[in-house]
# Entry
Amino acid sequence: MTSVEMKFFVVALVSCSLATAGYLLSLVVKKVRLAKISTWILAAGFIGLTLNLFWGGIHSEGWSSFGSRYFLSIYAWVIACIYLGLQFRTKTRTLGAFIAPCILMFLIAAAGQETDKNLVPPQWQGWLTSLHLALAIAGEGLFVLASAAGAMFLIQNRLLKHKKPGPLGRLLPSLGDLDRINHLGLLWGFPLLTVGIIGGVIYAVFVWGGQWLADPKVLWSLAIWMVNGFLLHQRLAIGWKGSRMAALSFAGLIVFLCSALLIRFCLATVHDFI
Amino acid sequence: MNHMIVLVGLNHKTAPLAVREKLFAGCREQENFLADLLGIDGVREILYLFTCNRVELLASIDETPETMKMLRSFLARFGGLTAEEEASCLYVYHDDAAIKHLFRVTSSLDSMVMGEAQILGQVKEAYRKALAQNATGIALNRLMHRAFRTAKRVRTETAIAANPVSVSFAAVELAKKIFGTLDGKKTLVIGAGEMAELTCTHLVGNGAEDVTVANRSQAQAEMLAEKYRGKAVSLTSLDAELCEADIVISSTGAPSYVVTGDMVRRCLRKRKNRLLFLIDIAVPRDIDPAVDGIENVYLYNIDHLQDIVDENMKNRRREGLKAEQIVGEEVAQYVSWLKELEAVPTIVSLRSKAETIVRTELEKASGWMDQMENGNREKVEALVNGIVNKILHAPVTVMKEESADFDSQSIVAAARQLFRLDD
# Structure
């Protein structure tokens, strides 16, 4: 990583840490102004990360120099981008208390990775791999957002059902807004992940033959795809809404995060660059 | 002569409604009220504030007991107050106490419902009227701006006006917490009680539309529906209406449940699990409490709403303590400025006298100074001015400092005597 790139990355990491602290503090002291300030800090971090990725992109030699740090950074970038984009349409700033820690987690993981290690092997590079990775990351980022909204929905729902909206209830976004974010996360995340997976499958069929099916990361992605597909179907066709959807998408996120860590650190996978 | 800030009036805490009404009506009928007030001997600046809860005069007057007494009797005379009412209801504050009272009133700390927003607008309107008739000057202009600043600080630095303290507003806030925006939300009103009507009005005012009124008496339902340009239905079509509604307000006098758990469960599929907010204001209750156990359905009865209001009221009182601190700070700053103001005319006179002496003496010496070389005359003039400024620096500074912290009258009087400023 060049020194300029490193500076941008540090800006992103520091801003995101401050934003996370600000968001969490806003929940503790129950002041929405703190969450608003944190959103601006996060936006600054997002710009830093964008510049970092852009700088890395124009100074790299294609995917061969894109290691796990970049992929983890792209995860963080996608989630931040979607969250900040949402801020233009909804007043859901405290959602950042759930989103910012996720972004920070990816950035910390990225900081711990070497750029020139775990590369996408040169023989696998190509537009199809790029498409596969970009869409899969965007799709999974949207699922994270949907699940974070789900988690907040559950808290707000509990407060309202127990007739104690109180200061925390006033601080959290409305149930309607959170349900809408969950809906949008699933609605946009599912087709992106679908096309991403199809891209990966087409590529794998031609390059690896049949071996790819046994890869734990592939099975994990398929499971995410199926569960979210099921949730989206229930939402659109059956009309599930509100607390049930929130609980299921949040439970889905916890299970998948745990299994992702298990796969990453305990099992061998061809996707070991992510 | 020294001047003072004085506030004369009565409010909901000191006077019963009948007295307030009498005074309000009496004063409002006066066409040249401000002009009459300005005509009182010793009144320099004045404004009046009339609201349903208070009638107050705020004035900057010469410091004489007569002027204060005349203001008081002026108010009592126009309000037709008896001597007894005048003694028990009217209050008179002066200087620090008057400023503090004004700041508390403007910040809504003295209102019947602490934190209500209307009072600031009413005070601004009172000031605007006085300004239009040139009834205010430097003291009141500065005071009023400081009062508005205090009110703004109280609003932004405390949560005094953050949460609703009426049942109908609490219901609207809850609806917003459930739906986000109320735009386009369908409202079903069951029964045509006053409370339901008030809540419905607030909901509609916040964006809810498509009001349906279901009532036993069709005529009453139609009357209420017409008010919101909605439709009236009979209680028998409640099942169908429940499937459509987002917000339900119920306040019938029915002895048993009008909306049961089964009715809500039956319409869940048709509603596609949309969120449903039910407000039960009736006693005995109209809506089966079992409804609250259903997913995505939120039921609040009158007790739940009252609990929220009580909690909010408690919070407002807590925030009120913070607001009192802000008022205290602002009063101290204003009083310090006001005291400084007392020394200003003396400082101006002192400087002007010194300048006159310098000018006269330089003119006297112009005969021999004209013979001086070029540039030397300016040097001598600068030297003289410098010496005078140095001599005046200490008394001016002391007067400013003393007047900001203490009563400046004695030191100002001493300065006037020592430098013979009144000759």
Observations:
- Chain B touches chain A at residues 162-163, 173-174, 176-181, 269, 272-275, 292, 295-296, 298, 300, 304, 307-308, 311 (CB under 8 Å).
- The mean pLDDT of chain B is 87.
- Residues 337-418 of chain B form one domain.
